[in-house]
């Protein structure tokens, strides 16, 4: 029987690193769903008819598109957030994600609406977050290493704009599922955060401790 872990949260919260660590620890297949929207966003950059182009690209997206170069840039991140607000794009990519979540060996998906829309019946739901300032500092360092010409103030502004767009969109806004475990990594080392997440998954896998208070903090 498959086992599904859903991880949601804003950009640079650490959810991707945590998801990859959980996947490696348990041998689960992993999908960074943000790459789906980044792949679409990158392909539509500069096109005039954003809606028509984005829907066509989303319908034809393949796993190979997730390996394209340049998906982690700040410009692509903003483009991804824009196409993610298009209902038709989300519908097309929802099918891709839901199919992936049925991996017989177990699957972990990280994004912004996994626990609320894509996998509402996931065995484990985590909402990984951190303050906007902390997340901007993390992303700033990543972009500098990647050779991007950015400022911390500019990255913080982008983070705040994207947070507002993701949380306020009409379709599948970013929000913690009612039964999600909340993990705030603002003052955590990545090792601590990964250990806490793995422990939570272990509890539910081994003991069936799926029921807990609403948005219980770990």
The rounded distance between the terminal residues' Cα atoms is: 27 Å
The CATH H-level superfamily is P-loop containing nucleotide triphosphate hydrolases
Which structural class should the secondary elements be placed in?
A: alpha/beta
Rounded mean pLDDT is 91
The proportion of strand residues reads 5-15%
- Any low-confidence stretches, pLDDT <50, length ≥5? none
Q: What is the CATH top level name?
A: Alpha Beta
CATH topology: Rossmann fold
How many β-strands, per DSSP?
Answer: 5
- Widest sheet, order of strands: 2-3-1-4-5
Tell me the domain tally: 1
Assembly form of the protein: single chain
Q: How would a textbook summarize the main sheet?
A: 5 strands, parallel
State the order of secondary-structure elements, H for helix, E for strand: EHEHHHHEHEHHEH
Number of helices: 9
Just name the CATH architecture: 3-Layer(aba) Sandwich
Describe it.
With 218 residues, the chain is an alpha/beta fold. It has one domain (4-207): Rossmann fold (3-Layer(aba) Sandwich), CATH 3.40.50.300. The protein contains nine helices and five strands; from the N terminus they run E-H-E-H-H-H-H-E-H-E-H-H-E-H. Helix 1 (15-26) packs across helix 9 (190-207) and helix 3 (50-60) packs parallel to helix 5. The protein is globular. It starts with a strand and ends in an 11-residue tail after the last helix. The mean pLDDT is 91.
Short description:
With 218 residues, the protein is α/β, with parallel strands linked by helices. The protein has helices spanning 15-26, 34-44, 50-60, 74-83, 87-100, 114-118, 132-145, 152-168, 190-207; strands spanning 4-8, 29-32, 107-111, 124-129, 181-184.
